[in-house]
Fold each of these.
Amino acid sequence: MSITAIILTYNESIHIERAIRSIQAFTDQICVVDSGSTDGTTDIAKRLGAEIHTHAFVNQARQFQWALDTLDIRGEWVLRLDADEIIDPDLAREITEKLPQLPSDVVGVNLKRKHIFMDRWVRHGGRYPLVMLRLWRHGQGRIEDRWMDEHMVVWGGRTVTFDGGFADHNLNDLSYFTTKHNQYATREAIEVLNQRLGLFARDDALNARSASFQASSKRWVKERLYNRIPFTVSATLYFLWRYVFQLGFLDGRSGLVYHFLQGYWYRFLVGAKVMELERAVAHLRDKAAICAELTRLTGHKLVAQSEPLTTSDVNESQLAPRL
């Protein structure tokens, strides 16, 4: 079975060689889609045999979908890999051995991701395994069109899960980590506001059949329950759930840093940004005007649906999924 890997990059010179070398043994084509790196990322990738493509970045979902729609993908299967991720040797062997044996009704493969923080594996707090669809038959998968928490989804068959090692191991420092999560928080706040106000179409293709049960159930809990609770309460309860009841305290001192920043500070920041943005647009009722103001405040270009807000929009945001 031939495999094409797609990696999105922007100034990933400290990661890209490690990522490419982790997949060279079992992939037939490696496509790097870069959004203007200035640190030699593309030179490293090209030296290692990757095909280099350049495209202006809007968000992760649209960048990756552009790659799926535009590139000459020659593989029968497609692998999505972030530049700071690694496929461990045992998973590489599992893919090589099991992929050709899969029946034709299997269209996607979920992988079990582990998170490495401060060079230590975060084993507890509900952070392992994170089951994500990352390998699928070419032509039977796409990425959700969302500003944050986008997932790969498939159609036309079922998914299976492989057990080998797959790690998210970013080598940057805490300043990078907090800056990145600050940017994530802005994008997630946009998604929460859209859920509440129905500003533009929401892509809700994720479910247990199109990806993994874990990913779809987490989305359901977050959007149907968590986002309806005041963030001052929900962020605190979430951190306690992860750190105490899901045994996050067993991850040691570096684990405390991770669970506090990612499981409390980040969730609290998302809620605070939602509150800030809601106040900024509270006097507006026209969706286009709201999106224009949110574009000005966040720097992300948002395009509204044409009709004005109604009472039902404010109270209920279940729009039809984009298919």
Amino acid sequence: MTDQTRGTIEMTAAMVISGTIGLFVVLSGQPVMSVVFWRCAFGTLTLLAICAGLGLFRPDIVSRRQIVYAIIGGVAIVANWVLLFAAFPRASISIATAVYNTQPFMLVALGALLFGERITLAKLGWLLVAFAGMLMIVQGKSGTAHVGTDYLGGILLALGAAFFYAIAAIVAKKLKGVPPHLIALIQVAVGVVMLAPFANLANPPVDIGSWALLVTIGVVHTGLMYILLYGAIQKLPTNLVGALSFIYPVVAIAADYIAFGQRLQLLQLAGAAAILLAAAAMTLGWTFTRRRVACHEAG
């Protein structure tokens, strides 16, 4: 088996696992702060074992400045989890996941504001496509039976989650050379400290089913997923990583349909498709002119 084949399998598995996390969050029935706290707690234990096994606890691996950046990134990534998980019961897993995939556009906007990076016409065009998709999703609430109690609030929370993910991605640029498993460990450890005061630890879950779901979120959706994801990134070209990442929203929408009967109406489905198409185009560097040029050359 070649490295690329192994990496493709690892990336696919990581995205399938990611796509089911909303299902586990909703089924746990726990408050959002508690879910994210336990995700971080069990994730910390898992990643501690992984980092120890890989011999990553050496003073020469990460500097103090990088630890500070990792902590800042941890605050952003934990805020991202809190907002996204809060969006699931409000707007549905499907809609929240589709809206959450506006992350590439948040990243482009922050790059332009903070680093003066140029926004090309192609990127602007895909941004408009994604914005049109967002409008279709917002307008598509009426007539849909399977939505939460605060549809618009859920959409805004998912947008907030995408924003904090983009912040974490920008901070990660300062962590070049730091083993990703160690970065992940620092981030989930930050989450434990951040959320302990808000996690209702005085009244933990009392049934085995809830604990099983929370342990799965921490061990499988955090620890195992990071191992698979980072293993794949090391083996695959960037364009293939970007393409395979769109397995995640497809699995999330499918899981929402199978578990909860969430059926997107036509306008919502078109909006979700527009956002995912635009996000894929941004990630893979598609332009509006490529097809036209190809047709001209063929003629």
